[in-house]
Fold each of these.
Amino acid sequence: MNSGLFKKILPHLIAVIVFLVVTLIYFYKPLVDGYVMNQSDIVRWKGIAQNAFEYKAKHGHFPLWNSNLFSGMPNYQVAMEGKSILPDIPKIMSLGLPKPLNFFFLCCICFYILCISFRLKPVIGILGGLAFAFSTYNMVVVGAGHESQILAIAFMPFLLAGMIFTFEKKYWLGLVITILGAYLEIAVNHVQISYYFMLIAVAVTIPYLVTWIRKKDWKHIFITAGIVLGAALIGVAASAVTLLTTYEYAKATMRGGKDISIEGDKVTKAKTSGLDTSYAFQYSYGKAEVVNILMPEAFGGSSNKMLDENSHVVEKLTAKGIPEGTAMQIPPYLSRYWGGIIEYTAGPFYYGVIICLLALIAFIVIKTPLRWGLLAVSVLGIMMAWGKYLPGFNSFLFEHLPFYNKFRAPSMAMVITQFTVPIIAVLGLQQLLYRENSRGLLKADFKKILYTVGGLFVLLLIMYMAMSYSSPIDNEIASGISQQAKSDEIGRAVIAGMKEDRRNLFGAQILRAFGFALLLIGLLFLYIRKLIKPLVVAISLVVITTIDLLVVDKGYLNNENFVSPEELSSENFVPSVIDQQILQDRDPDFRVFNAGVNMLQDARTSYFHKSIGGYHPARLRIYQDIIDKYLSGGGNQNILNMLNTKYIIVTNRQNNQQQLIPNPNAYGPCWLVKNVKIAQDVVEEIQAIGTTNLRDTAIVQKSFESAIIQPQWDSAATVKLIKFDNDTMEYSFNSTKPQFAVFSEVYYPYGWNAYIDGKKTAYCKTDYVLRGLSVPAGQHSIKFVFEPSTFKKGVTIAYVSSFLILILVAGGLFMEWRTSRKNTA
């Protein structure tokens, strides 16, 4: 090999090896033991996707409709395959590493490529890659099984790298990486993370654009715009099948707004275009909680971490006369977490003390306008993460920022700073160590750095002294304990003890951060005094930051998250005695209601049966209304019957064992009614189905009246399901008079078509959530077919785009090689 070429490649090869070694060390034991991750979201996904995989095994392709969750919904929201000639690029980029190693290696490599686009030293790229990859939130995401989210996070720096190469006039390389980055970012289908990246991309672009305009470099502006926007459009087109179907589906879901508001027994009209703010602003980040980025345990870490017997709660309770043995039993039931996310949090957004301090210092040493773009979007991300704790600002964004009202969990916006803070940090470190006359300039800035870091810790000390250490859940905790102990004084004592614990924890985290600050300042001081070289400083920071992050990360993703494949299967995918009893029923179409669990989290029932519950973050709006009104309190019998709920699983309170209750009153997959009652609006419609005998009377909203012919009752008339296929249902019908048939299938207007004797026929939404069809007298064949045009159109666009991507990437690489060779010559 050419020695010059080897010298160029060697630093990058070392970086790849470092990333591999760190990743392998972290996951060494479970990898050697052959264990797999026990990820709750993946387990649930397997539950709801099992029907689709069984269908594929039988038919050779995934169905478009999944009948096993929430009485039926589009399967392309669960498991989908498109058509493409492109290879598995993420697998190639991650060197074929198994999960979860591949996620962290991808994060490292993609951020390293971004650092190369900024022309940073490889050792600084290694620091940035490791800091970005092993940021604690990534551990939380992977541990929960949010795999599309971690992939979307991983590809953000890769896509930005393509943009930076283009901005720096490396057009061919920029074209290749931007196209691949856009394709990969969008293809993983985590729209919320991609949305945050778009905000970052805009913030990064503006400072460059201002510079180009000042220089009147119009040619570069047009070339850059053509490459970036063209690459984005091609990336979107390559994921057309996902985007088109998701956009269409969203209109019919909770994210598309609602027509009614349900509060207990009261139903009123409503008209919204997105999620409810009360729902969307769940998981809002507490304002002071932002200090987690450099103090991981300042707010207790996670909801799973509990107090121990050394808690001040014991001291406060014993002072109230509670025996010490009894008092020591209480802390293990109290969470250490006291931040703003009331619902549940699995861990903090921790980026590493060194990284945060370097980012802070960077604003002193970096003179480029890019810092202001990164600062602006970082502040925006934090303010968005505050959600309900900054209601005026976030309500305005929710109502006016395009598509923003489709997302929930504001705390996720901290992903913006998770990305921007390491960028600012590595840019700053490059300036500190490798700019011309770096020692002299650093010496001149050293007092400013000391004042800045000192000011940060003065602010933290003020917070330490000024905070009340109260939590939004304190009243709930105090109330529960007071009721149990029959004493308000005991409840107040527990909260007082918890506040002492929180104060001590916050103080300890300040001291921890201060220790790392002394290390950083000490290294910079030694560098100024010429006692160590810049490479030694950089390597030291790599080691310190990596150890810091990995130690913290072990509290959120460790060996306990792994189990043997056999254990994973036996705990989740082996049918119980109840399941086996139900599976003996060969009826082609019926549903099961597991009343012993939360029906919105019940993916296990979906693994074995057609369930009226399930697990999916975007449920059909009309079905969610039915859940809120009639099923959340244990199940309205009328509604269970119309949903063809043949079996109900309950939990026996005496022995905590499951018990099967057959429901002989279920209406079956289809039935004929004696009359159709017209409801004037959605409020009347949903209220009527709870009090009407739906076996005899169908409820249809007035807007569908034109598709209805009032039935003429014929006691000998029949309608019967003769074939059930996820995407096709066939029925036989026979009557001497016109009838109205109700089908126990969820109404979804975007793709389901009805045919009578092969002729397409209008049908209507019936009983609020089902399908109804007027059928003329005679003997007829009825067929419902799911044939969404968006899916077919999306597959075609994506397939054609995959050819275009391959041609442009191959051509771009060739032109980059040719240009590079010419420049070398």
Amino acid sequence: MQQSIKSGLLAIASSTIFTPSMTKRPSSSLNFFICRDRISLILFLDRLSTLFLYYFCLEIKNLKQLTRIYLGLLLILGLLACKQTKFVPEGKYLLKKNQIEITKKSELQVGDVTDVIRQQPNFKTLGMKLKLAAFNMVDSTKVANKRFVKDAELSQKNIRLQKKEARINQKRIAKAKRKDREWYTRKVIPLKDTLEPKRFFREWLKYKMGQPPVILDTALHNRSVNQLAVYLKKKGYYYGTVTGGITYHKNKKAIANYYLTPGKRYYIDSIDVKGNSSLLGSYDKFLRKELIEPLIGKAFDEDVLGDYRQQLASLYRNESYYGFSFSNIDYVIDTTLGDYKVAIQMNLTDRLVKSQEYSDSIIRIPHKVTYVKNAYFHVIDTTFLKGDFNDRIKELGLQRLTNGYLTTIDTAVFSEVYLNRSEKKKRGIDVSKDTLNISRIATFYYNGKMFVKPEIMELQNYLEKENYYKEYYLTRTYSRLLQLGIFATVKPIITEIEGTNYVDVHYYLVPAKKQSFGFEPKATTSNGFLGVSASLNYSNKNIFRGAQNLTFSISGGFESQPPVFDKSVEGENIQKAGRSFNTFEIGPSIKLDMPGLLPIRRTVKMPKRQRARTVVSIAYNFQNRSDFSRKNFQLNYLWKFYGGETQIFQIGLPIASVIKYSNITKSADFQSQINTLNDVFLRNAYSDQFIWQDWKLTYEYNTTDKKNKKSNSNIYFKTSFDPAGNLLSLFNNSLDTNDLGQKTIFGLGYSQFIRLDNEIIYAQPINKKSSFNTRLLIGAGVPYGNSETSLPYDYSFFGGGANDNRGWRARALGPGSYKYYLDANRTATQIGDIRIGASAEYRFSMGGIFKGAVFSDAGNVWTYKNDINRPGAQMSMLFLEQIAVSAGVGLRVDLDFFIIRLDLGIPLSNPALPKGSRWIFQSRDAFNQELLSTPELDLSIVPRPFNPVFHFGIGYPF
């Protein structure tokens, strides 16, 4: 059946695509012609789809898959076949496109002025107006009639529900009367929504996914011409001109033309800043430190000047000038210098505030450097208050609410932080005396008892007593208090102290729910393999009143994983994973995340900017498969530091950062296959593991949340360094040796290695709807000492999958140039000790929740040591020739809370193939000759080269 489908498709493709005029040309070339009208386009796409089916359906195993693909193509062809002007009224024209022509050379680009035009044509994706096609595809009269019927049905159903509700309530009233009750529980049956009813498919397709035709509006066209002229002046083209015109076509389509002649542009020749001396001094500092770019030499642009005002005002507020806003910056423009030069006078004006003497008048006061007088924390909680809160308020004669929050009764002053030795020397204070750090004093208001220790809240505050007031200190404090996870609401209020340049800072804090339980079902995808899982979670956000977050969870699920071997001991093909859930996992875990560096120092002595935290976690996992079961136990003890808004450091506790034990129980068949192969690398991967990391170092740099960035691009860099087994090696003389020649501890051979892994991601937005994203992966591990073969399985690298090289399925790429297709005993999972990978992806919007991508991936993995069972797997100087390359397209469905991703990757270069056949466009002769020269090879198990691979993923690949 499959062979007949292939033959039939090939015949159809040959008869429809290859025209008589092409028979004289080589069969590898196609004469793709340009369609001159809609009918030709449809015929062309139909023929092209047939060829597409022939190429991509060679591996389809049954007619059901073929039918689904063909129906999908028919739907696309149906959308394209619908006449675009189907619903354009007589005498009206469909706006085909806006044609913009910019005469003479200038810095102005077409993309700069496109959004200024008031009327835009129908949305286009990859050159096709699919949304318009979807609208035209459905008959609006039929949709309206069906909606009328459905609305009538909903109304009748609501009448029945109301009658049912009345009958139930009558029975309940009668029952209450019989029992002499004066009350009854009223039954309320929710009615069907008739205002915004659920759409049926055709209605959804037409009015939700579809877009009505954009009818040309000449009034909007003329208005756009005027708006473009205004836009030119805003951008410094004072003598620019704009004209417009409309080109009408016979098929009820029109093109709106816009002709722009910008002329010469004005540039800023000089800028004179005026204001009080302190403001001028700060402005000079901004320029010296390059916090703000000088305007001289830049094009005169009103938008640039507006952004400059906003940026400069923010810098002044961060320089302790409380109340400074963009309205305190005025421009006076002089364009009379000649030679298209502009002189700007920038005035830094005084503050406008309400008069204290006359409340209805406004006065001007000079800007002054502002200091913090006191910091107050209002903990809005009555949980620990004895007695009734309202009664206590009445007794004390207080209002129930203050600033919209419950009034606090009790007061405490936190003053437990003392200056250290270096701070005393810096301030000229006697180092032998204990001196209180005045800036770390804070006042707390609460009711009965504070639910969290005051030192934890004060540690998050950067607006300290007697220190400068800076706006970013306030923002930082706000985010730090929220990040503790123990407050549902954080509301800062700044109050100026009359007649001074001091402010008081008040934080109103509403506690969050301390404990919570949750059940979380999931549909998962791990490198393209599907799974279902669920977890039961318990969380305590403040278990010891120190913002310690305790999380306990037990999770389990089923997942599809590839078999280790393609064939069983008896030589039978093993069913590939992907459709059946062949792996079961379950296990509990507990994690404690707490402030401070336990057990070294007290929280109160920690530097605020580091936000140091300690994370301790213990996890157990049981995994069961048909060929083996694995039990894993892991202990992590990490310190975490934050370096400003861009950096995170994680350091494992020396000697005990990560302790991992893995026990594997193999089936008899699985063990027999390993023994038969006598592969020490494979034996090491599927054996009991004991990993004791000496320490761990992880560094992350991320510019996503960085303020005052000079560009809109983002950079993410992560590196991790993992040494293991070196401390244990010091005791080798007193340790036993197993049958593999390894020294053992607790009866297990321990792993010894060093591993370095690096990842860098660069994202460059192109416009609001598209971006260019790249990633580079470089990692290597060196096994030595007690690990003679390779890295442990969990620390190895692999290639292929939904988040790696998408031309290969997960863990199927490499290692090196290993010829997997010639090895009858190959494993389905390939790992290595070294990895190099790179990806580039262009992402764009397709309208609504749909987004698209065009990508290319390259990379491979290698072994550090020679593996006699996998020739070509070892890293060598020829590694550049062994880079696998793939390309493809992807569809993303953005549902806000997560993204569903579908990618189709096509291998372009396969390093395992012989030279002359490695690239998809090269001849297969060398590959076929290699197969023929291996007579013992079973050709039925040889995978076809360059087959497309379909991947399903959650979230972006990087």
Amino acid sequence: MAWIDRLRNLIGNDDLERGLDEEMRFHIEARMEDNIKAGMSPAAARDNAVRRFGNRTLLKERTRDADLFPSVDAFGRDLRYALRTLLTTPGFAVVAILVLALGIGANTAVFSIVSSVLLRPLPFPEPGRLFFISYQPRANPFFEQGSMSDEDYLEFERRQREFESVATYGNNPVTLTGAGEPLRAAGVAVTTDFFHVLRSNAAIGRTFVPAEGEPGRNAVVIVSDKLWRDRFGADPRAVGRVVRLDGIPCTIIGVMPPKFIFPAGAELWTPLEIHLGHNSWARPVIGRLRQGVSAQGAEFAFKALASSLPIYPNAHRSEYEASVRGLHDRVVAPVRKPLLVFTGAVAFVLLIACANVANLLLIRAASRRHEISVRAALGASRWRLIRQLLTESLVTFVLGGAGGVLLAKAVTPALLALAPAAAIPHGVEIGLDFRVIVFAFGLSLLTGFLFGLAPAFQATRRDLRLHLAEGGRTSTGGRQKLRSVLVVAEVALALVLLTGAGLLLRSLRQILSVNPGFQPRNVLTATVDLPDSAYSTAAKMRAFHQSVLAKLSSVAGVQAVGAVNWIPLGQADIRGTFEMDGGYRRPPGFMAVKPVVSPGYFRAMGIRLLSGRAFSDHDNGSAPGVVIVSKSVARTLWRGDDPLGRRISMEDKPGPGDWLTVVGVVDDIRQEQLTDQPSPAIYQPLLQVGQPFFLSHMTFVLRTASRPRAVATSIRSIIRQVDADEPVQIASMDDAILGVTAASRFLAQVLGAFSIMAVLLSAIGLYGVVASSVAERTREIGIRMAMGASNRSVVRMVIRRTLPLAGAGVLIGAAGALAAGRVLRTFLFEVAPTDPLTFGSAALVLLGVAVAAALIPAWRAYTLDPVVVLRYQ
């Protein structure tokens, strides 16, 4: 069969080569016979025939290029020759492959995360039809960003026609008992259409039915796959089992599939009852778009409907925002910009690595100049030589890509381990799947072709025959210029990365230097949430808190104990308005945090008392109502007057018994983030607060003499003594500091690692160019030294060769660094994107690295013996 023969020719070229040799031999022998008949001797006849026939190698190359199959076969020969060439130059191969593995590996690791988080659709059927529906006042702290009030949601659900179904949900952490040790679980309360909107069914059991959203029929729960495995041993009989949520018996009706974790971190789901009252809750709303309805049409209809929703007439249209946004965009929005920054950073690292290898290819081509010239003299066309060199480049880059995939496999888990919990959405699986591997090798082929072109064209310029005629001493000026351009580009890219990392590090340092208003060292916290079923009144809650505080104060090594309902840096608080007595008026829009604290809290947290007194056990329900205000509240409300003895009320329309007297002023603290302004705060004593809502969530604070973690076991034991079913979450305030700075720390660490890689690669590039320059100018240096030039002047000549390259890179990179600073502006705290100290430090570092990279070539030039050099030359 003819196609089999063709296939064999693709693999090996023996038949083709044999046929070409036989055909050329036939023509030469025929010419010899004609010459002998003309009277020539056999030897002369053969010489004449061979000479007139021409260059047999060139003719064979042209014959191979004339057909597709021989051309593919020629690629096979080029491939084998490229591999043999790499094996004969192991030093070049190892350095090039390692450099490429760094660049491609870093890109592959980041792409695996970007692909999984930003590019992969949500794990729901027809995810493109899922949308997040947002309607809310633009500046209202009671409304979570991207949410809708309960009253508006019910009206919207009744009147909308663009969505097949809509649902709302909200975080509802609960205490789970009846399944091992008590657990504070990340619960989510959802309307019964929630799983229908997402088109997600339970892996075992079922999801909610509409009737289970009604009071009295909602004592059911659906658990996540992880919770099912951790707490129920993956037992299918868990469905139908009764557990307690905040003390209320609930029946497990379903277990969700392993990949279903929505919203982020959810461990169980309960039916949501919407109660309209004085306080309207705000929750996210999702919907599945009807077939044939566009997102733009749905948003237009929603905006038209928004003007008649119940809450709308209370404010001007410009104060509200109505939008319909893809659910995927909503989920990945918090991490999109950091991931794009990482993508740009690793792209710079790859460009530097590729420029480095291109420089190595140029240096290697220079050392093979004689070989290439001989091949050209024997008849190889320029295209044939370029094809061979490109093949060698592609082989090098593909091997580097293979190394990069292995490196990415090892680096990706470490990268994820460094990332803060919120950096990667829950449920997203990160790994090297088929798409990532295709990306890695596609990137290898693309960069191998692009960065192999210039060295290939440079190595096959038309001065090859001149090179042979001059004994290999043709000018190297063109090659040196191209190498210099590549090195300048490397330094410029490295400066961009180094400056960006420097800005983030400076910003992190500024964040860590912020005074939070309290002393976090040696402070341990223990948080509890009391269920309504067991603690239905404020009196029961206060009794629990007082019992725990009394027992904690007797623990060895504890210096002070207190309690607060919303711990600083816990990223949650209660803010609100208040009324003032004595003719004073609260500034428009001014609100304050309203923590409830126990006596001893300020001492335990290390919050300074500026004037007046702290709370005591006498500030109880039978005593006159008192409060303590923070410094900013005192300054804003009473404008320099003494706040002590002034009265405020937490009620909108206070009666005679609702007024609270200011008895102290304390320092301002950062309540939510270190990067926020200090929070105005009005502290109320725990023993005087009568609303259960303000007492159910409480954090006990212990200041210890040393090693706060040492008392963690005692804390758990004490809380179990008071209530065996109450779980406790223990953390140190140092952990809280780490938590609120985790994102900034992660950005600085990763970009810092990439910038270090970039600087090292740039140093390798500088070293390669300077070393090759010294090697090519060895004869010139020998002559200079023979004519009286000192060793030091030669060293200065080498350094002068290096610094202009680095300086040019720094100048060019400065523009890119300015652009990078603008991109990073949103990640910076009290650091300007054009911070001169950072820019100057980055430039000095790169110039210092450039000098260091030139020292080894300079030393080689310093130690040259001119006699030996000239004799060799």
